[in-house]
Amino acid sequence: MNIYDLFIDFAIASLLILIGQLFRAKFSFFQRFFIPSSMIAGFLGLLLGSQCLNILPFSEGIGSYAGVLIIIIFTVVGVNGFEFNKTNSKEEANRIIGFQLYRFVAFFMQFFIPIALTVTVIRSFYPDVNEGIGLLLAAGFSGGHGTAAAVGKTFAELGFAEATDLGMTFATVGILVGVFGGLIFIKWATKKGYTGYIKDFKYIGGDLKTGLISKENRQSLGDETISSVSLDTLCYHLSLILTVAGIGFYINKKVLAPYVLSGIPDFTVAYILALVLFLLLRKTQVYHYIDTRINTKIAGTCTDYLVFFGISAIKITVIIKYAIPLLILSLAGIVCTFLAVIPLGYRFIKDSWFEHSIFCYGYLTGVFAIGFVLLRIVDPDNKSKTIEDSAMTPLSGFLEIACWTSFPIMLVNGNGWTIVGLTLAGFIACIIIAVSGKMWHRDSLKDRQFIGISVSNKIKAS
């Protein structure tokens, strides 16, 4: 493989992504179910690639791109950093804490149920199945294609060679569950009166359907923080991200792996290095020249290509080999995400419970983008404060990084029940904290109809 193979692979990917966007903009099926353009492109790549019609001249390296792209994505997360916002109201603080506990509970549930199911049921019938397949369900559903690529790469380095293909399959199933299941939930909630800001599913903007933003709704990509006379702003931000990502990768491969501890994922080292950079620069003038919106767009671009290559490179033979375990665990993932909305959603969240729950459901089935799409359908003006509540603390991000880093190593060493115990304990602890802190709401689901309507009426009155 040479540099021109890389060029051709990304050229083909770009063409199919453009075709995917065309399909999204023109065909009602893709609009009705909000199928991401990169996912459409990925399936086209799988169909036209060497495993099916063998039309496209992809190189042998197509399966390795996801592992590199995820390093860049996690580097952006670290460089962009975080903020702790102080709340003035005890009621607002309880709402935010309750929502964070809810996110932790839903996150933990995707670990202990699939892994316990793998250790007990699946391995009883398929004793050769690696215990890590249960974690790949969580990585694909809760983390999306990016995390599935990262965890799959870690497993591959530990000897589970088929992990990346399985993780990408779970991630693809997760997004489909998020899109189709989310729309089913929204239709049900609007009919029952649980939504506080829309009363009919038909009120959905054209921008959401087609993916094309009209002129009046367009926003700036970011601010130019570097004069083009000196250096293009996009080049400046991309150089910063690639520098940190490259140094993190180099340190892990040349220093940590041979001399300190092997098995640490590349994306973890890059993320930590980027976070250290953020902490060092956040109070200095240097950070004023970093626009986090531009960084986010860089990560978003990498994510779209990652989704494409992740789906296009899935080995169909692996799917066939693991068909039954994949089916069982996918059903378990669906159950976990549905339980996250009913009954957990309205127990942890009082006002605007469905808006918060459907957003959580969206990112528990793949990516934050799905959560944002579903939230925009039920709360187009973000009156429920779901986004602010979600961004209020970085603790969930730290927790996820720790899980994706340590759990693969534990599973390879046969410690599946230890992970089940830890995550189940975390699940129970969050519920106990919510109950003791009066953040566990005991009123029935039927009563929540009136809460949603009252919130809506208050907004209209104001």
Descriptive labels:
462 residues, globular
Describe the structure.
There is one protein chain. The protein has 462 residues and is mostly helical. 71% of the residues lie in helices and 0% in strands. The protein is built from 20 helices and no strands. Mean pLDDT is 84; it is low at 450-462.
Secondary structure blueprint with pairings:
Layout: H1 3-26, H2 28-32, H3 37-48, H4 65-80, H5 90-125, H6 132-157, H7 163-192, H8 206-210, H9 233-260, H10 266-281, H11 292-312, H12 316-321, H13 323-341, H14 344-348, H15 353-363, H16 368-378, H17 386-390, H18 395-412, H19 416-436, H20 448-461
Helix pairs in contact: 1-3, 1-11, 3-11, 4-6, 4-9, 4-10, 4-11, 5-6, 5-13, 5-19, 6-7, 6-13, 6-18, 7-13, 7-15, 7-16, 9-10, 13-15, 15-16
Please estimate the helix content: over 70%
Number of H- or I-type helical stretches: 20
| Content-based structural category | mainly alpha
Separation of the first and last Cα atoms: 63 Å
Give the percentage of residues in beta strands: under 5%
Sheet of most strands: none
Order of helices and strands: HHHHHHHHHHHHHHHHHHHH
The average pLDDT value, as a whole number, equals 84
Shape: globular
Could you tell me the number of beta strands?
Answer: 0
Which stretches are poorly predicted, pLDDT < 50 over at least 5 residues?
450-462
Radius of gyration: 22 Å
